[in-house]
Fold each of these.
Amino acid sequence: MGRAFEFRKGRKMKRWAAMAKTFTRIGKDIVMAVKEGGPNPDANSRLRAVMQNAKAANMPKDNVERAIKNATNKDTANYKEILFEGYAPHGIAILIETASDNNNRTVANIRSYFNKCNGTLGTQGSVEFMFDHTCNFRIPKEGLDAEELELELIDFGAEEVFEDEDGILIYAPFNSFGTIQKELESRNIEILSSGFERIPQITKQLTPAQVADVEKLIEKIEEDDDVMNVYHTMEEQEEA
């Protein structure tokens, strides 16, 4: 198995699952998708993907339809995606994806979290190169063989295909998203969810006390309403 498998296995998804902001995050994704490509999912692949993710997160259909309708209103705030980079204590690189309708507020907030937790907010490009920007798809495993599918999808950009308890996961470079989405749809393979992740190329092992220092900063950042995802180079701890 490759780095995508190890990343998925080690990442503490419980942090997001426990947060009530999941629907808020999906709502922002809907607004950005509609503003970019219109309200018709058949003609907007990004919106189609967000709607699949909403279904996977058990977001009520009425909420999704209302969010799409609201997004077409010209008075609805337009969110801008901004990437923040920096270092947590103990040399751990941090990459933060945000979606904000007020850049000044977001910058001030993110800077304050780093300052309060002995971190350093970096400049553009200071740590992004340490992460591979990937896309991923989750599909049902019934009737499909992960190894065979991997061979078939290599030509479309797939780099890793593997099974977990919830289905088959496909990982590919960021730029392969549209190509793989189109190929899966042409084969009538249901896409349960899809998205993008930044996988650290190298991780660093810390002591429990050092981990607590880094976790303190990560938790503060993740509580911010403008924050969509946080990635880091700290080696994930095994669950007890």
Amino acid sequence: MSLGIVFLSEVFGTAMLTLLGCGVVANVALRGTKGNSGGFLMVTWGWGIAVFAGVFVAAKSGAHLNPAVTLGLLVNGKTEYAPDVPVDFASTLTYFGGELVGAFLGAVVCWLAYKQHFDAEPEVASKLGVFSTGPAIRSTPWNLVTEIIGTFVLVFVILTFGGTPSGLGPLAVALLVVGIGVSLGGPTGYAINPARDLGPRIAHALLPIKGKGSSDWGYSWIPVVGPLVGGALAGIVANLAPIIVTAAA
């Protein structure tokens, strides 16, 4: 498979992910929408369905949709990211690039869908919250720990049960993301994906959103570094799991 196809697959899949994921947050958070004040459970299910759709769209490339997943596969020692896509420097950058571009584009389309509601929303935090995550209690080390743990669960389950998100299956990945959200999403909003947070945050900074305020760049590195660390750790531990099981038997 050509790297161009991989790039487009990840762009479209990640764009679908963030369009629907940011969209459910917009529906809950912005003034005057039909889903206003729908609550955190509505958000977690919306993100789960967003993952479900994104994995289907990007199945050809393995549907990583997330640099932490790509890094986890790399650290795990996989020889292919998807059938006929060898793990090397060029393919790794292609996945990272497609994921970030797709996340940015999905967020832009979400803004277009909710343009009037962004204009009507007086709270700058609600506008930023559509695009990117933020902590319930701001504490750099603990926010980082939360993102590491949540992403570790995501990538570890994918590696041990499916090999890739598409190998695990769209419904299984979607339910996994819902489970992480309702269990571990409270402290930070569970970015668990550097592209999902950084791409839309860049969109927030660049788009002409009325009264948007700051993009909170001071926090922005946590939902990037935390998931990358969590994904890398999952790749390492997933290699140890069969050894531990065999030794215990």
Amino acid sequence: MNFLRRVFPLAGLVIAVASLSGCNILIPDVAADSPARFVQETSPVFYQPPGVDPRRVRPIPDQPVPQTRELYKTQFHQTYGLPVTNPVHMAMYGQLRDEDFTLPAIPVSRVQPQFLRQEVDYETTERPGTVVIDTKAHFLYFVEGNGKAMRYGVGLGRDGYAWSGRGVIQWKQKWPRWTPSVEMVSRQPEVRPFGAENGGMNPGLMNPLGARAMYIFKDGQDTLYRVHGTPDWQSIGKATSSGCVRMLNQDVIDLYDRVPAKAEIVVM
């Protein structure tokens, strides 16, 4: 019995050592710290086509970085990936459903930026609510007060047909009828079918008065001078009409909603 007690613990120890002899727990892998082995295991593998000596292949020269500043010639248009057209302008001058008509969108990219609607600094002695037309610069200002005004680009009459002075916007009209004056009919016989005797031209997208008209009176008399819309957006900033102030249809709708009844107007 004493012999067995001594043999069994030794036999168990031998079996345990034999079972661990196949593991690395007792035998550390000292080669894992070898720099040569590290390089061998981590070196990249490149594709080498048969018959090509990589030592004789010349590297591709560095390509110049594209210069985005050459995309637009002026410093103002250095957008660096941003849209050139102001998205606010796209919203203001987009397609608009008004009354029974749908106004088409205006290609704002083809209109000079200074003639698009914008709030500007404007020092004046005129009261808020007054409309001021600068005929030389082709701007219409709606005075807001506190040194601010809403500015619009306008088309004006040719020399000899323009009116200037101080008056009152006696009344306003949505989608007005156009009735050319007797003087205009005498100068342009082609508009005779729309004369007063024929009831004028019906409202519509091609009506020369556009979506809105504001009629200017002085001393209680009609000056025959109007602030109105126009389907001819290309005339804004130019002197092409027969005397009236023409605005983009989207702009004249905006101005119409701002101008109070019997507002004063100054044309200079």
